[in-house]
Design the sequence.
């Protein structure tokens, strides 16, 4: 009797039954509506000749003119190239770093030691880019920087790390890896913690060594986490971050340091071309969403779980 | 029954509480927004809101006795939004974009976003009103013209001396290496060379160099005028304006800078050096020369003597050194920022007149003294008519009034109590006066170009980057010419045409 009742329960009844749960959902929905979706309509200024003093309703509509201007701009390909290279380097060098680190941490036996290490590697994440840029400057400057002292000892002369275009990208990658790798392990370690211990035991019985266990038990267990995070990362593919690049760029390396994010700042904020820079930002988001949808589809085709 | 009631209340109370909390916090938010908006308006009572720079991380708050005294004298409730100088232009641009503006807004220079706001009619044109006010009516015509946008005044300038640039150097080092105060560019070069190679501090180590330069391009701009290069724009043979970097003199200056760099007479890392650290090598005895505003001289001397009381008058200052075409120096524009009045916050002409009267009254001796000297008996006292400061390194005391001068115009003159003149301070004054004879004016200073407002940042970057690259040897003369070509094709040619057209209209 009671079983039959629950199976025939209607949607409305279920809604009524879980009403308090749904009520708890309301603040979250409101948050997204007010702070995430409402500001989104500001995108319309990408299609206007916007002036803050005339407002969205008073400004003139110009259609796709801002986008056309942007794509025809001689800067466009340089910006695209710089941004793209940094984004690819980020995927190749930074994305795997937390995975490797968490796999290494996972192999540690002494728990107290493991936890201490974990805590310590989180620390750089909480430093601001300003601090990290200053530290980099102190380390790599040619007037008495530690790195350059070492370099000149072995190599015979100093290298202008901070102002040569060819050293810009390695420095940027080094900074990101130094700052964020420890923090990035959080999710992977959580995923690793949920791996069934019996599988290891079974693998040991089957005679699997350390590396075999890592390869056949641990990695498959976190594969879906890796794929999901990769897809989410692609959504921000063209986001190189403004602060870090801005702080590290100077007259001598600007040819490789100019990216969409710094360009939006210079054109939008310092020159007051709000519509134009919104168009640039929108372009970035569109590229991001295409990459996410594409990667998600690909992941599903390859038999992985996507994000939706 | 009792139990189920209890359970029910538990079920209800928690979510109810959380929603109530949330809604009340939302209400609180909107409330505070309202009040801040109201206080931003001036008509409700005698309140004037100001946005300006602060150099101190702790500018005077409303509880500062000096601030209260100033409010009493001005008969106005003053609300200041202090923004640290280092982040001011960012904050300013964001505020301009938001459209929520204070009654008085300090604009650091004629930046593109301000110009486009002016073109959108966001600010009052103040020119016609100035004559009605006893102090403002005495504003300097040249500086007014410099600060104008196409001859129209949209902001009241904060007055600064025109001839403010000069060379600050180690006087004691100069004696140690047996040289005299430099007169020509060659002398100047010899001084830098001796400061680098002849152990000027006499410690037997090779640990000094000639001149310290930072990322900030000011020193290069000053030095290139010594070579006869124009100040931003100069007339060519046909009487048309051309940008300074297209002249022969400019290139000569560039070659000189490159020589200084190649021979190690300036710091190698200048292109990446934070301007905030610029003064350090001078203060701690690594570098002997700095080319900047002349006020740097006494500030450096005070800091050096504070750190090492054995030093006796270590610093000297001069205006410029003579080049192939005589003595030249780069002027300032005669102002450092201006006070603009937005139409969105000051809505009627009547309100505008009130705000202008406020700015005018700030120039009275009482207001200036409060802003620059503080309170008598607390921050300073007068002994035989001379100023004696009582703030001796007491940060808390200094912070009670420092930065209050950031909304002072100094029109028509400084009326606060001046410190007793040390020999160096007196010399600075002389240098400033002498400079006025030799400064190179920028003929296009008052002209406002549409192209520059749109592309100025990119255009400036092209040339500045090329200049730095040339100095450090990343590009050669041909590379610099390429950069000029790039500048021209990026909009520079339109910029030149526009400036020349505007120039002809004015002259």
Sequence:
């Amino acid at each position: 009797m009671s079983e039959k009742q629950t199976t025939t329960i209607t949607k409305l009844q279920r809604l009524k039954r879980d009403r308090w749960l749904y009520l708890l959902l309301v603040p979250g929905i409101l948050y997204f509506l007010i702070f995430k979706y409402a500001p989104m309509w500001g995108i319309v200024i990408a299609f206007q000749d916007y002036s803050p003093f005339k407002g969205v309703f008073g400004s003139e509509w110009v259609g796709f003119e801002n986008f056309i201007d942007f794509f025809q701009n001689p800067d466009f390909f340089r910006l695209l190239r710089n941004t793209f290279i940094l984004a690819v380097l980020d995927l190749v060098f930074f994305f795997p770093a937390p995975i490797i680190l968490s796999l290494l941490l996972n192999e540690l036996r002494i728990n107290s030691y493991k936890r201490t290490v974990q805590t310590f590697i989180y620390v750089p994440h909480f430093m601001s880019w300003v601090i990290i840029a200053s530290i980099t400057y102190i380390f790599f400057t040619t007037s008495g920087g530690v790195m350059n002292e070492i370099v000149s000892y072995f190599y015979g002369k100093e290298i202008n790390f901070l102002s040569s275009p060819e050293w810009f990208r390695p420095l940027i990658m080094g900074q990101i890896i130094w700052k964020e790798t420890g923090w990035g392990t959080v999710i992977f370690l959580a995923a690793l913690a949920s791996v069934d211990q019996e599988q290891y035991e079974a693998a040991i019985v089957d005679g699997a060594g350390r590396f075999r266990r890592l390869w056949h038990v641990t990695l498959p267990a976190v594969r879906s986490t890796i794929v999901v995070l990769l897809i989410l990362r692609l959504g921000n593919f063209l986001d190189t971050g403004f602060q870090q690049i801005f702080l590290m760029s100077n007259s001598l390396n600007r040819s490789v340091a100019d990216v969409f994010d710094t360009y939006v700042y210079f054109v939008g904020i310092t020159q007051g071309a709000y519509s134009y820079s919104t168009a640039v930002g929108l372009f970035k988001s569109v590229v991001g969403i295409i990459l996410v949808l594409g990667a998600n589809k690909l992941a599903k085709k390859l038999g992985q779980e996507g994000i939706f | 029954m009792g139990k189920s009631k209890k359970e029910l209340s538990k079920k209800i109370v928690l979510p109810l509480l959380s929603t109530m909390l949330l809604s009340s916090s939302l209400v609180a938010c909107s409330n505070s927004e309202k009040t801040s908006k109201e206080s931003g308006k001036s008509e409700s009572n005698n309140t004037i809101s100001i946005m300006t720079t602060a150099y101190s991380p702790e500018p005077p708050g409303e509880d500062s006795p000096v601030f209260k005294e100033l409010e009493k004298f001005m008969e106005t409730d003053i609300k200041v939004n202090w923004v640290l100088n280092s982040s001011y232009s960012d904050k300013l641009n964001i505020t301009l974009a938001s459209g929520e503006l204070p009654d008085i807004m300090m604009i650091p220079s004629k930046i593109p976003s301000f110009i486009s706001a002016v073109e959108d009619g966001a600010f009052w044109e103040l020119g016609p009103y100035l004559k009605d006010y006893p102090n403002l009516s005495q504003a300097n015509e040249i500086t007014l013209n410099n600060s104008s946008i196409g001859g129209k005044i949209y902001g009241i300038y904060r007055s600064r001396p025109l001839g403010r640039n000069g060379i600050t150097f180690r006087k004691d080092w100069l004696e140690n290496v047996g040289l005299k105060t430099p007169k020509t560019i060659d002398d100047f070069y010899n001084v830098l060379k001796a400061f680098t190679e002849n152990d000027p501090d006499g410690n037997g180590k090779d640990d000094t160099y000639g001149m310290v330069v930072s990322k900030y391009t000011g020193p290069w701009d000053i030095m290139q005028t010594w070579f006869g290069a124009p100040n931003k724009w100069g007339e060519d043979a046909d009487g048309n304006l051309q940008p300074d970097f297209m002249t022969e003199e400019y290139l000569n200056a560039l070659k000189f800078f490159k020589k200084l760099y190649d021979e190690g007479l300036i710091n190698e890392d200048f292109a990446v050096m934070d301007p905030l650290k610029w003064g350090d090598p001078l203060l701690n005895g690594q570098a002997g020369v700095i080319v900047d505003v002349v006020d740097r001289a006494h500030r450096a001397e005070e800091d050096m003597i504070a750190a090492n009381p054995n030093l006796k008058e270590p610093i000297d200052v001069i205006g410029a050194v003579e080049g192939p075409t005589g003595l030249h120096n780069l002027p300032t524009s005669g102002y450092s920022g201006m006070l603009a009045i937005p139409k969105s916050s000051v809505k009627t002409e009547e309100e505008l007149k009130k705000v202008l009267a406020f700015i005018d009254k700030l120039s009275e001796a009482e207001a200036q003294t409060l802003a620059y000297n503080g309170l008598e008996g607390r921050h300073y006292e007068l002994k035989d008519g001379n100023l004696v400061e009582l703030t001796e390194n007491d940060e808390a005391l200094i912070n009670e009034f420092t930065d209050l001068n950031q909304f002072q115009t100094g029109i028509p003159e400084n009326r606060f109590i001046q410190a007793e003149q040390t020999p160096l301070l007196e010399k600075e004054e002389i240098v400033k006066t002498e400079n006025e004879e030799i400064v190179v004016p920028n003929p296009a200073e008052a002209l406002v170009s549409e192209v520059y407002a749109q592309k100025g940042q990119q255009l400036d970057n092209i040339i500045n980057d090329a200049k730095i690259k040339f100095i450090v040897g990343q590009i050669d003369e041909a590379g610099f010419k390429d950069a000029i070509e790039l500048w021209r094709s990026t909009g520079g040619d339109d910029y030149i045409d526009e400036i020349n057209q505007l120039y002809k209209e004015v002259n």
In short: The mean pLDDT of chain A is 87. The CA atoms of residues 154 and 232 of chain A lie 43 Å apart. Strands of chain A lie at 48-49, 60-61. The radius of gyration of chain A is 25 Å.
